[in-house]
Amino acid sequence: MDKQRYMLDTNTASYIIKGKPASIQQHLVRVPMASLCISAITEAELLRGLAKKPEAKQLALLVKEFLLRVDILPWDSDAASAYAQLRTLCEKDGMPLGAMDMLIASHSVAAGAVLITNDKAFYNIEQYLALEDWT
Fold first, then answer.
1. Are 46 and 11 in contact (CB under 8 A)?
2. Is 66 exposed, middle or buried (0-12, 13-18, 19+ CB in 10 A)?
3. Which of 51, 82, 88, 108 could form a disulfide with 7 if both were Cys (CB 3.0 to 4.6 A apart)?
4. pLDDT digits 0-9 by tens, 8-47
5. Is the previous residue joined to 21 through a cis bond, with omega within 30 degrees of 0?
6. What are the residue ranges spanned by the domains of the chain?
7. Architecture of the 6-132 domain
């Protein structure tokens, strides 16, 4: 049985919630739900998106349903330690990430998870973390 964890970045979580593209749905069929997770940072970004669109009632239902079904990893001391190391390495190499992306990347490293994203910013630092693009 595959014990690999897959941490969904916010853009991938959004694709899953909206049900497209089909390529992501095909990956979901092959990966056990128990191996998927998101960072609490991604949860915050999804909830922020809803807060900006209070009229989007159907989207709010879909997001809440998604959050009930996916494992949400809390930000912890291991994630903080990974953040300190990853941010230092990236800045030393002249490859900074945005604040929220850096937190998510660090969390995936701390969790030993493959980060699932199509956000090209992460691929600038792919030597430091495991990445897959399911789109």
1. no
2. middle
3. 108
4. 999 999 999 998 888 998 888 889 889 999 999 999 999 9
5. yes
6. 6-132
7. 3-Layer(aba) Sandwich (3.40)
